[in-house]
Structure to design on (661 residues):
């Protein structure tokens, strides 16, 4: 089934087409939801809400970009909506100035696969995680993030820096643990 | 900043297109949630064939009923018509006649034209077609009154006697309770030219009475004379014309409740019994408004809005409750200082919690009925479906650990926000109170097809509501 046929089927409320659309994109979008949600159950709820919105608003997709991009944007928006009660201002490790610059060689993290990285992201405080996801993985700039989250651009930058710092600390801790384990052998 | 690029890129590469496991049931769950959110519109969209066919069947039924109720008429376009003075007609005194807007005027006029084909010594010009519903009442003024050159003469034998105005009246007030009053008479006598006995202007019945032919035209319903054995005459019907009504009512209600295990969630009989033991039906009430179209055949189509509030008492008692109470005493001493003593006490007793739960819903009732009877009493039997528009509640119930908890919020996931459809059946009695106004009493039963609890809840809670509507209805 081509994408056009798929869209037409969904617009006609054909259950088979809707199921196919869901099957094609649900896996990737679930990863998006898991990155933003606090736990798996919440991610499922977000995915469900997002696809309801997708099916309800599919007629608004004008085909200007890719369907996947459009779907991803809705999933991200739904995720943000579900976590909008979180305060991005209150979380933090102090001012931006207090964060030491940390440079990490790629060798330290190159071995980390998606599961490990997801686990690391999950450990981040919610505000950091959201900004990190939006900026690093979903490709939004700070101005867009500030608008989406209704925060200052500076706050976005600050949260991103703190997120990076924490992630690198986590990675270093993991590395030490691995080294210790290696020595144990 | 640039130092972070490889770090960021690694995350992006690994995670941007990563796929995660999605549970199989999620699609069905999502579609069910979507269907639920879309409500009635969705059902109509997804079941358009079913609902369309049902609607067509209903429309066809109504159409057939309507067509059957309308007598076959000949072309009456040639019959000149004249508008009667509404105000004058409306002032027709009580106790004389009632004037209906919906009388099958052309039929009677056709009928008269057919039985009196030739001019003769008595000429009647114009008719007021007046159904006599009840001699004590004045109903609707006639809006449009046909006028026809009419001749009552050269009648077939049974009609020959009807050459005088007095007899004309007797004829015209036939067994069908339809009076055709001549508005202008030209009575020809052997030695005189036709004599006009009533002004050609259409006068109110009251003023007709005051004129010199008043005795002749006092309307009586007792004569059972008809227009003669003219078999080709169209049949007249005693059916009432289509009528529109608006009803408003209030009703005391009692709701029978059943709670049992949700078959999809396993056995929870103990929990169901525990809930039943602390929650009791109390009383309820409903109120609403509806519009009715009553066809000539008596078939009634009704639709409106109904509010139902069902009340229950949550009466929870937990014996053996222990509470530690901290008591702080301030004792003023003789030297003016204050000494504070604090001690704790254990209180044993029964924890009691009594709350009044309120389950509310707003529904859209669609009903079909059949009305019969006369005046002043008439009756109807009704059946239909109530489509729930929304429901909400304030409810304290036991949770699965048998502790009280507030199940009111939607997040509690106990009660549905739309409790679906319910089946409705009733019998109504109407009493003619005033012109255009009836009082009615309508005992009814309403059964909720689906439980009011969500599919995820371990129990199913079902309702059957009985009530007694007391209301007023107005004919439009």
């Amino acid at each position: 089934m081509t994408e056009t046929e798929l869209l037409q089927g969904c617009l006609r409320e054909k259950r088979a087409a809707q199921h196919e659309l869901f099957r094609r994109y649900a896996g990737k979008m679930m990863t998006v939801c898991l990155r933003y949600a606090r736990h798996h159950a919440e991610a499922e709820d977000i995915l469900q809400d997002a696809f309801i919105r997708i099916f309800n608003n599919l007629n608004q997709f004008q085909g200007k970009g890719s369907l996947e991009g459009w779907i991803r944007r809705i999933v991200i928006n739904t995720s943000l909506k579900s976590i909008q009660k979180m305060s991005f201002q209150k979380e933090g490790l102090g001012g931006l100035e207090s964060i030491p610059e940390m440079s990490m060689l790629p060798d330290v993290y190159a071995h980390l696969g998606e599961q490990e990285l997801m686990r690391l992201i999950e450990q981040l405080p919610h505000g950091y995680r959201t900004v990190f996801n939006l900026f690093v993985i979903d490709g939004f700039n700070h101005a867009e993030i500030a608008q989406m989250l209704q925060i200052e651009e500076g706050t976005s930058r600050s949260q991103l820096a703190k997120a990076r710092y924490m992630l690198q600390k986590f990675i270093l801790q993991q590395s030490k643990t691995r080294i210790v384990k290696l020595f144990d052998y | 900043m640039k130092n972070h690029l490889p770090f960021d890129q690694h995350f992006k590469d690994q995670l941007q297109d990563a796929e995660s496991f999605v549970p199989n049931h999620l699609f069905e769950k999502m579609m069910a949630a979507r269907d639920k959110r879309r409500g009635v519109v969705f059902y109509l969209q997804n079941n358009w064939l079913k609902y369309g066919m049902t609607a067509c069947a209903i429309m066809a039924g109504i159409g057939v009923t309507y067509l059957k109720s309308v007598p076959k008429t000949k072309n009456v376009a040639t019959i000149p018509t004249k508008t009667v003075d509404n105000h004058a007609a409306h002032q027709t005194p009580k106790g004389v006649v009632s004037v209906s807007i919906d009388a099958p005027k052309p039929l009677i006029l056709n009928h008269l034209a057919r039985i009196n084909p030739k001019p003769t010594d008595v000429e009647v010009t114009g008719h007021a077609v007046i159904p006599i519903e009840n001699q004590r009442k004045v109903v609707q003024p006639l809006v449009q009154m046909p006028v026809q050159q009419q001749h009552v003469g050269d009648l077939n034998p049974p009609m020959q006697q009807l050459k005088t105005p007095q007899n004309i009246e007797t004829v015209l007030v036939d067994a069908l309770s339809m009076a055709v009053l001549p508005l202008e008479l030209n009575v020809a006598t052997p030695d005189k030219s036709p004599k006009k006995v009533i002004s050609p202007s259409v006068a109110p019945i009251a003023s007709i009475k005051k004129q010199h032919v008043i005795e002749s035209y006092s309307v009586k319903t007792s004569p059972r004379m008809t227009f003669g054995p003219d078999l080709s005459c169209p049949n007249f019907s005693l059916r009432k014309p289509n009528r529109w009504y608006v009803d408003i009512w209030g009703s005391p209600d009692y709701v029978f409740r059943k709670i049992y295990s949700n078959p999809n969630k396993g056995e929870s009989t103990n929990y169901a019994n525990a809930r039943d033991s602390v929650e009791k039906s109390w009383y309820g009430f409903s109120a609403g408004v509806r519009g009715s179209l009553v066809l000539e055949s008596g078939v009634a189509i009704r639709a409106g809005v109904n509010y139902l509030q069902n009340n229950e008492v949550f009466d929870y008692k937990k014996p053996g409750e222990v509470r530690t109470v901290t008591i702080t005493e301030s004792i003023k001493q003789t030297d003016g200082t204050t000494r504070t003593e604090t001690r704790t006490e254990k209180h044993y007793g029964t924890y009691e919690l009594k709350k009044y739960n309120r389950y509310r819903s707003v529904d859209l009732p669609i009903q079909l009925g059949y009305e019969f009877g006369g005046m002043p009493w008439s009756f109807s039997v009704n059946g239909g479906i109530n489509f729930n528009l929304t429901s909400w509640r304030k409810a304290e119930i036991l949770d699965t650990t048998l502790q009280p908890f507030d199940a009111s919020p939607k997040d509690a996931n106990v009660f549905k926000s739309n409790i679906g459809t319910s089946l409705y059946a009733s019998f109504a009695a109407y009493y003619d109170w005033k012109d255009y106004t009836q009082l009615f009493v309508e005992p009814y039963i309403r059964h909720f097809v689906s439980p009011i609890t969500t599919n995820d809840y371990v129990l199913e809670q079902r309702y059957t509501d009985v009530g007694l509507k007391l209301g007023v209805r107005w004919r439009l």
